[in-house]
Amino acid sequence: RHTRYIGDWSSDVCSSDLGVRHRVDPSRATDPTAPTLRIGIAASRKVGGAVVRNRIRRRLKVIARDLAPNLPAGTDILIGVRPEAAEASSDELRASLIACLRRAKLIEAPK
């Protein structure tokens, strides 16, 4: 099922340079052929030129791929990139994404 409206998604969970919306589709969680994680990244021109936006997208894809085993099966994540992310390092982007996912209760905080 394709989502056409934002009503299916959680409310926005934010950090200074990222915003995250998510949903968990239980029907995909039990289907072994379905992807366990789908990710969408939205970066407007306010973030920077095409080179900057694509660099941030590539970095976020790698970070999300590393975090995928820790996320519930059937998770869809929409990441909104804010202009502050253009100056962030990969470690700062990783920390921001982890903080957002913890606030959304998708991954647990270390004890």
Can you walk through the features of this model?
The chain is an alpha+beta fold. It is 32% helix and 21% strand. The protein has helices at 26-29, 50-67, 90-103, and strands spanning 13-14, 18-24, 37-43, 75-81. Strands 1-2-4-3 form a 4-stranded mixed sheet. Helix 2 packs across helix 3. The radius of gyration is 14 Å and the shape is globular.
Draw up the topology in text.
Blueprint: E1 13-14, E2 18-24, H1 26-29, E3 37-43, H2 50-67, E4 75-81, H3 90-103
Parallel strand pairs: 3-4
Antiparallel strand pairs: 1-2, 2-4
Helix pairs in contact: 2-3
- The total of helices stands at 3
Beta-strand content bin: 15-25%
Low-confidence residue ranges: none
Order of adjacent strands in the largest pleated sheet: 1-2-4-3
Total strands: the figure is: 4
Cα-atom radius of gyration: 14 Å
Principal-axes shape call: globular
Structural class: alpha+beta
State the share of residues found in helices, binned by percent.
Answer: 25-40%
Alpha carbon gap, first and last residue: 37 Å
**What would the average pLDDT be, to the nearest integer?**
83
Largest sheet: 4 strands, mixed
> What order do the SSEs take from the amino end to the carboxyl end, as H and E?
EEHEHEH
